[in-house]
Structure formats: structure tokens, C-alpha cells
Amino acid sequence: MDVGVDVGIDLGTSTIKICVPERGVVLNEPAIVAVDKDTDSVLAIGSDAYRMLGRTSERIDAVYPLHDGVISDYELTEVMLTTFVKLVCGSKMLMPRVVVCVPIGITEVEKRAVVDALRAAGARKVCLVEEAIAAALGAGMDIARPYGSMICDIGGGTTDVGVIALNGLAVKKSIKVAGNAFDEAIIKYIKKNHNLIIGPRTAEDIKKEIGCVFMRDRLMTGVVRGRDARNGMPRQVEVTSDEMLEALEESSVYICRAVQNVLEETPPELVGDLYERGMVLTGGSAMLYGMDKLLAKKTRLSVIVAHDPQACVALGTGEAIGYIDAQTDVECATSPLDVYSY
Predict the structure, then answer these.
(1) The pTM is what?
(2) Which of 93, 94, 195, 288 has the lowest CB atom count within 10 Å?
(3) Is 235 exposed, middle or buried (0-12, 13-18, 19+ CB in 10 A)?
(4) 35 DSSP β-pair partners
(5) Averaged pLDDT, 78-82
(6) Ordered DSSP codes for 160-183
(7) Nearest to residue 101, comparing CAs of 307, 312, 326?
(8) Cα angle at 177 between 175 and 178, to 5 degrees?
């Protein structure tokens, strides 16, 4: 890689993606670290650590160092980011400028933690962009025009909703309900209704296989395996897509309400634009069956799932690099876009 190349990072709760302009997403790794609890030493990072999830001894802990889109374990986040940045950039004397996305509404302390972790990982300059802006850029939306556009990014830890006009967010909202909440809802449902204890990987797999938030045209079934809650023995049960619909209902309602709240706060002139142009869905859970249909029903907007919705935020951070003044290195807004440099 060329010296001093810039990179964009989707700092997700579940997954870290790194984008290089003109090359696209070059790294896509689970945001997880395996730690030896006795020695506090890091045993594995990313995919290697994910394979240990639910399969380790009591001595080994598989940790997600980011929670709800912000850093919950600074030291492990620093180690993880250092590893990933080096994988992409190699050992260069001049390390990259980094554009990284952050959820809407995080505090200055939480922003500073992200900046400090990336500085420690080798970034010579860090620029922050809100997730909704990055998602819109990555989805190919023209956000510079004076009319309103609506984006809903359903990630792992947060759902970010925004109405964008003239390169900024006119109305915005973030809730801590997203893909991980869906997984947790499935775990609770299976335990309550089938007396079966399953792990997050199993929950995610069945969600992708038969999960839905809108009634499917035909009933689907899947098998989940886990530990019997009554006797501790291995057991498997068959579950249906209708059961998944019931399990995921509460979380999907929260997401719908967040979108409705944003619409209620949107100025009338922009609301007219939204009914003409609709809303774009991004993030991994945008692909959950029926999410577009459910939001269309609840909002009366046309809803489109972006092409490659999982990659939109990462691609958008790469796009945001083009808005940064390369000669400026001060702690202030440096472009017509809502990008802030540190």
C-alpha cells in the first residue's frame, strides 16, 4: 500500500470494516477479542476469536470491546484496531488519516475515546462522521441537494435514523436497538418457549435463515441446537418463521417508532420531499426479511434496501475522505460535510 493512504473505518459493535478509496472494503472482521482471564493476555482477534465464541473454557473470555456503538473496553479496542490497521496499512513510517463513523448523539468523552484509540493504533489524523451520513454516502445518495432524503441504518448495536439535506442532518435519532437486540430476543424466546439455552452465534444463524419482521408468504422452519434448560443435556428443536416473527416483534416496533419520531420532527417542506423520494435502508438488519415492508406500512413511505447494505457505512467513510481538507489539521469542522477532525 502507498505511504500515507487514507482509510475509512466502520467501527461497528459487531463488525469492523475498513475501506480504502477506489479499492472498496478491504477488511471485514468480527469486532471481538479472545482474552486469557488468568493472564489478561490477548489470544485471538477478529475471525479467530469469533470461532471461539461459546466454545471456550472458563479461563478464556470472548469479548466485544464495543457496546451500542461506543467503546466499552478501551485497551482491547486499541489492541484490536492496531491489529486491523496494520493488516491494511502495513508497517509504514507515515500512517494514514482515518475517517471513522460514530453513532448519532454520542458524548464528547465517547468521541475522544474513539480518537485516542485510533491515534494509538497509528492514525496520524482522525476525522469523525456520523453513521447516518456515512450510510447515505455509501448508499449513493446525493446529500448535497437542498431537498430532504431519509436514511435508516440498522447496525449491530444501534439504529441511526436521519433526514439529510445540504450535507447535514436536519433531524436525527439513534436508539440502542438493532441486530444484537434481535439476537438477544431470539435467545430469550427459545429459552422461554422451548426450554432450550442457545448462544449468540446460533441465534444469529437462525435469524438469517428464517427470521422475519413481516409475515412471510410461506411458513419456513429451521433447527436450533443447544442445552436443555431443565437437565443440561444437548437437545435440538424445530422453530418456525412465525415464531421468529413473534420473537422479533418488540425490537422491530422500537425501530419503527424511532423512524416515526424522526418524521414527526421533520419540517413540513422536507416531509414532502420524503414522500416523493422515500427512505433508504442500510446496515446488516436491513436484509432481515420484511424490514422494508414493515417500515413502508408504518410510515407510508416507499422504502428501498440499498445495494450491499452491510457495506454502506464503510464505503461512506471512504467517500467522506474526499470532503476533508488535506492541508488542515485543527480540531474543527473542515468541510461542507459534517466531518470533524482531531
Answers:
(1) 0.90
(2) 93
(3) middle
(4) 42, 61
(5) 95
(6) EEEEEETTEEEEEEEES-SHHHHH
(7) 312
(8) 115
